[in-house]
Amino acid sequence: MRSQRLLSRLLGLAVAGALVACSSTDGRSLPPPDSALTTTTVSTPVLPPTPASPFTLRSTSFPAGQVLAANVTCLGPGTSPDFTWTAPPAGAVELALVVRDQTEGGYLHWVVTGIDPTSDGFGGGGVPEGAVPAVNSGGRPGWSPPCPLAGTGVHTYEATLYALRSILAGGAGAPGSDTVTLIEGATIAQTSITATSSADATVPIR
Question: What digits encode the pLDDT tens for the residues 97-118?
Fold first, then answer.
């Protein structure tokens, strides 16, 4: 009788243990994540910065790599050339324009300072409002029309636009060479074009 009770108790403990073992897998554990609810991270591509437009100079009467228009030389009325340009780099507070004869040792045909950096050009025969022409190598303020002597061949003329970091103090009567020195000392960027002219009949003049 005693052994039967002991056997019944052991059986009871075995059943209880089995129930505990079953309860460890009874739904109280976390189910695997639902793939429909999974968050997907979308990365936004990083675009490279847009490069700034280059600082460039153009002219219809002083065309790059071509012959000067006759109207800006002594073969015509000798009016000053037109120029247009793209925006200068940041930090420019003034623009200056210099036209030299590279064939004649840098003879200064035109030195103009005080050009508004927010402007984008001017027409032929004048300078922008507020601009100041220095004295050219011919001894006069303003434009000196190119006039190559016969037999001297083709002359190359360079027009350079300077972006300046400071306002120049030179006036209309300042010597061009001194003004160019001031310009070059305040330059943060520059752009140039060259054109040619000649008194020889073998070189066409427009």
Answer: 999 999 999 999 999 999 999 9
Q: Residue 54: what are its φ and ψ, rounded to 5°?
A: -65, 150
**Joined tokens for residue 44:** 């936004």
Task: Tell me which CATH code domain 57-197 carries.
Answer: 3.90.280.10
Domain ranges for the chain, please list them: 57-197
Q: What is the pLDDT of residues 1-19, one digit of tens each?
A: 444 544 455 445 444 444 4
The pTM for the full model equals 0.73
Helices (H) and strands (E) counted in the chain, each on its own, are: 2, 8
Reduce the DSSP state of residue 172 to 3 states and report it: coil
State both tokens at 193: 């074009």
Q: Provide CB contacts within 8 A for 11, sequence distance 6+.
A: none
Residues, the chain: 206
